[in-house]
Amino acid sequence: MNGISLLQEALSAPAEEARNRFAGRLNGYLEGSDIVHAVRLQGWLGLEVPGPGCHVGTGSWDFTRFKATTSPVTCGRCRSAGLLTSSFTGGPHQQTLDLEGI
Fold it and tell me: In this structure, are residues 73 and 79 in contact, taking their beta carbons and an 8 Å threshold?
């Protein structure tokens, strides 16, 4: 097993917990800020974690600083991109295949 695989294995449970915190289309804010962002899943070291929909930098690699809230989106970047609500519903994420017509 290579180093990145070991890191992914170690971080898979915290990443799942982060996804579960945002179950139910909750919006999010970065710890220490009052700006509320729409939430989108983002790739991070081969894992998917919830993050600001506008992709604003978090100032840290610590995805646990992104907290769930029921407050409405106030981020100007999210709002100008039309991200007024979170699209992430939480839980495991898997792409679906459209096999109709095959």
Answer: yes
- Asked if residues 27 and 37 have their Cβ atoms less than 8 Å apart, the reply is yes
pLDDT one-digit tens code per residue, 20-56: 888 877 899 988 899 999 998 888 778 888 889 898 8
**What is the Cα–Cα distance from 44 to 47, expressed in whole angstroms?**
5
For 46-98, how does the pLDDT look when each residue is reduced to its tens digit (9 = 90+)? Answer: 888 888 989 887 666 677 788 999 999 999 999 998 888 777 654 444 444 44
| Alpha carbons 94 and 102: distance in angstroms, whole number | 21
Q: How far apart are CA 27 and CA 51, in angstroms?
A: 10
Distance CA 51, CA 18 (A): 10
With the CA atoms of 72, 77, 81 and 82 taken in that order, what torsion angle do they form, in degrees rounded to the nearest 10? Answer: 10
Count, residues in the chain: 102
Nearest to residue 41, comparing CAs of 53, 29, 31, 30? Answer: 53
